[in-house]
Design goal:
TIM Barrel, 15% strand, binds 2-phosphoglycolic acid
């Protein structure tokens, strides 16, 4: 299974280093065989001698250049980062990224062979508008994306479930994951208010290949507990 932590705009470089070290010792001491990913804040990217996969939350589709406030391929290469999160709902809805700009980013980092965690998910009005409208909205997020890319991981994250403590029912997760698996065979994570208290049951849902965790992952011991659930379920 794939267990990923999106640290968002949290932790300094020093705190991130400590977080990754604690995670690394947990994974080593418990002989964890799951794939563990961490996405630190941009300024906390660093040299990490670790078995944990460290990825970037964002990067511009460029090697370098005049794109104020952005980083590019060169800056990821400095730390041998080969994993990137693309299409997260906070970037789509707060930072205003369009599907077109997301596709440009996807294609750029795909060409470089990056592992891409590609996020999709519907806002509340789309869910409330019924199954058909919701699926149309989600399908539009697949437009321009190579769903057969070998290093692709998809994360289904309903926007209304992110950081809210709300989650779809397990039946709803199962139903939508089943539909999404028909669009792509890539590993499919669930994200949105996954906590220690619900991680095990979410991981146990058919067609859920892992979880993408935000706020609850900020407590390293909670994140480690979720990793242990995945390890247990994979036995
Ligand atoms: P959350 O965030 O776990 O805080 O809901 C998930 C995410 O944004 O990836």
């Amino acid at each position: 299974m794939i267990i990923a932590a999106n640290l968002k705009t949290n932790f300094t470089r020093k705190e991130t280093k400590q977080y990754i070290q604690e995670l690394e010792s947990y994974v080593t001491n418990n002989a964890i065989t799951q794939e563990v990913l961490v996405f630190p804040a941009m300024s906390s990217l660093d040299e990490n001698n670790t078995s944990i996969i460290v990825g970037a939350q964002n990067a511009y589709p460029t090697q370098e250049g005049a794109f104020t406030g952005e980083i590019g391929e060169t800056h990821l290469n400095e730390f041998a980062i080969k994993t990137i999160l693309i299409g997260h709902s906070e970037r789509r809805h707060i930072l205003g990224e369009t599907q077109e700009s997301i596709v440009a980013k996807f294609n750029y980092y795909k060409k470089l062979g990056f592992k891409i965690v590609y996020c999709i998910g519907e806002p509340l009005p789309k869910r409330e508008a019924g199954e058909q409208e919701m699926m149309e909205y989600i399908s539009a997020q697949y437009e321009g994306i190579d769903t057969e890319y070998e290093n692709l991981i998809i994360a289904y994250e309903p926007v209304w479930a992110i950081g809210t403590g709300l989650t779809p029912t397990l039946e709803d997760i199962a139903s939508i994951h089943k539909k999404l698996k028909k669009k792509s065979k890539a590993p499919l994570l669930y994200g949105g208010s996954v906590k220690v208290t619900n991680a095990k049951e979410v991981l146990n849902v058919l067609n859920v290949d892992g979880i993408l965790v935000g706020s609850a992952a900020l407590y390293v011991e909670h994140f480690c507990t979720m990793i242990s659930y995945a390890e247990e379920l994979s036995q």
